[in-house]
Sequence to fold (257 residues):
Amino acid sequence: PEAAAKIIGGYVESARLLGRRTAELHAALASDPTDQAFAPERISPQDQRSMYQSMSGLSMRSTDLLRSQLGGIPADARDDARQVLGLESRIDHIFRTFLNTRLTTARIRVHGDYHLGQVLYTGHDFVIVDFEGEPTRTLYERRLKRLALRDVAGMLRSFSYASQAALKSDQLPADRMARLGQWARFWVDCVSAAFLKSYLATAGGASFVPQTKADLEIQLTSMLLEKALYELRYELNMRPDWVHIPLSGILDLVGPA
Fold:
């Protein structure tokens, strides 16, 4: 909305620029059909089943870990945790829908661990760094070509982390936290929309971009859910105080409207 530019300021334009640079990154990573390492590859049914099995396995490991650590996570996150555990069948349904949707986009080399910590702002542009992939994945997994929207989902989830980190930086009374939480959500929604629209406009008809609304929705939902489940497992193991962030992300995707 028009109010976003007035309230948020220049970061809306920064999000648009980052969306454009992300699409240009993917175009570069898919630009040489003669080089096996960078040639886009058509997704076969076997590839799609492999992706589904990876996401489904991650879901089971993450929810099993959450169930085993339920009593040890912060009290204010337990209701969300119980809701997530009650939605396991819904999570599986989303991933099965992904499996049963014939994908026509190409797999390409991607960044693999894309978030705000991997981009450097020069004052007028962004430089993208650190292409080694997610540190908990094997080297074999990091080399695999993937859906480009996996990187897009990583950045969208990073916007949520940025807003929650800002709220967490101050000890705020409950009434102020509730009000500021609504503004944080407004910020995330607006910069995410600016980033995604700019990405899609720049990428255009590239082979790695879904060309129908239905394909875009199922791919992006699945990639966002996979990323949030990965974050859930990471936070349970490393930073339990942050577990509310991926839990909220999962509920946004699979919970009641």
About this structure: The chain is about 65% helix and 5% strand. The first helix runs from residue 2 to 8. The chain has a mean pLDDT of 93. The radius of gyration is 18 Å.
